[in-house]
Amino acid sequence: MLVRILIYTKHHLSFIWNLIEGLNAFLFRLMHGRRFKSVVPNVIHYFGLPGYNFRQLVTNDLPALNSLLNKQSPGRLDYFKPHGFDVKSLQKVYKNPSFLMMGAFKGPQLVGYFFLRCFWNRKCFVGRLIDQPYEGKGIGRIMNNIMYNIGWSMNFRVLSTISKNNHLVMRSHSGNKTMRVLKELPNDFLFVEFVKPFQEK
């Protein structure tokens, strides 16, 4: 029920959502900010793919992110709407301490974007977008490993909402052994959790 309320608020009650975002950012920084800053670079450094660089975005990357998002064909963004794509909206998200923006780079070119939207109550939502010419090269697997392991290292639940009509994402997750469907949401969406694999001692 809470997830449905938050989704509705985000898409229909922007003023209330902005208040929620502001309060969450304050609480997240207060409760988790210091540990988060140490966990993120350690996890990103651990995973890699030859020929590509994965890192946290900096302010100077925002124009490239704006270009990446806005050059996608409309159908590729039907189910990817984590925030506004204009530079002003990207700057606002970038300044939010509870929203982690990361990129996959081929040389100097930004070819993929992935993020964690974190909440003070130890939950985080993940999302990713890969430029179409770079799909199928293993970038998504590295993105997933980074996102999931940052969340797990923080002892956060790693969550997402996925449309059953988003065939590309559904296909990419068909072999994802960490994914568990928690419930079905309205409009053919699934609420899922990515669970850390059990490790025997």
Can I get a quick summary?
This protein is an alpha+beta fold. The chain has helices at 2-12, 14-46, 62-70, 87-94, 139-153, 167-172; strands at 53-56, 99-106, 109-119, 123-130, 157-163, 179-185, 189-194.
Describe this protein's structure.
The protein has a single domain (2-194), classed as 3-Layer(aba) Sandwich (Aminopeptidase). The mean pLDDT is 89. With 201 residues, it is α+β, with helices and mostly antiparallel strands. It has helices at residues 2-12, 14-46, 62-70, 87-94, 139-153, 167-172; strands at residues 53-56, 99-106, 109-119, 123-130, 157-163, 179-185, 189-194. The N and C termini lie far apart (37 Å). The protein has a seven-stranded mixed β-sheet, sandwiched between helices.
Offer a few descriptive terms:
201 residues, alpha+beta, Aminopeptidase, 7-stranded mixed sheet, 6 helices
CATH topology: Aminopeptidase
Radius of gyration: 16 Å
CATH fourth-tier homologous superfamily: Gcn5-related N-acetyltransferase (GNAT)
Structural class: alpha+beta
Give the mean pLDDT: 89
Strand order of the largest sheet: 1-2-3-4-5-7-6
Basic shape: globular
CATH architecture: 3-Layer(aba) Sandwich
Q: Secondary-structure element sequence? A: HHEHHEEEHEHEE
Q: Major β-sheet, in short?
A: 7 strands, mixed
Distance between the termini: 37 Å
Query: What is the total domain count?
Result: 1
Provide a count of the helices.
6
User: Count the strands?
Assistant: 7
Beta-sheet strand percentage?
Answer: 25-35%
Report helical residue fraction: 40-55%
